[in-house]
UniProtKB/TrEMBL annotation:
The lineage of its organism: Eukaryota, Sar, Alveolata, Ciliophora, Intramacronucleata. It comes from Strombidium inclinatum. One of its GO terms (cellular component) is ciliary basal body. Transmembrane segments: none annotated. One of its GO terms (molecular function) is tubulin binding. This is Uncharacterized protein.
Amino acid sequence: MALRDHDLDMIKMSKCLFNRYPLMDHFAKKNIFCVIVSRLQRFFPEDYRFMPDSFLLPDEARDLEIHMRQFPAQTFIAKPSRGRGGDGIILLKRFTDLPKAAFHHEFLVQRYLESPLILAKKKFDCRLYVMITGVDQVEAFLCDEGLARFCTTNYRRPDQNNIKNLYMHLTNFSLNKNSTRFQAPGEKFKEDRKSSKQLFSTILKTLKKAGRDTEGLLAQVRSIAQ
C-alpha cells in the first residue's frame, strides 16, 4: 500500500503515527488473503486446518464446477473479493446458481461450514483484535476484549427453503441491523446476553456456563494470532 505524499511528509516530521503497513491492504482482499493462507497451508498443514475448500474465480471456475459435481450435497458461499458488509454474498448448492459477476470479477467461493457453534439458536462470529507493533522481529498483542456478532434469525442447515435467508447465515452487523429482529445493545452492554452484538467476554462466560472448554478456545485463538 503506497502512502500519500501528505501522509509521508507528516511521518517524516514525526507529527503523526501511521497505523498501516505496506501491502497490508492485501489482507483485506479476500482472494489475495486466500492465496496467502493456502500457500502457508501447504507448508504447515496442521496449523491451517481451519481453511475450508476454496476456489478463486474466475480462474478456478472449472475446478469449482468439477468439485460441486463430486459433492452435490455440499453448500458453498460466494463472496466478491473486494466486498464488505455482506454485499454480494450468496449461498449456493449448484454451480449454475453462481452470479454472472463471478465470471467477470474476482470472487472467492468456499465450502460453507454447515455446523457452526450456536448460541440462543443463532449463528454468531467473534471479532478479536491483534496489534502488531513491528514486522522486523514481529511482536503482536492480542486484545483481552472483542465483539460477537449474531444473526437475527434462528439457524438451520441450509436448504432450498432458507438458502437465501441472509439473516440466518451471515453475521455481518451492517446487514443484520436492518432486520426487524435486530436487538440493539442496551445501556448494560457488559452484562447483555440478548442483543445482536455482545462482548467476547460475555460469550466466554456463556460458553463456560454451558460446559465448554473456554481455556482451550483461548489457547487456539492465541495460537492463530501468533
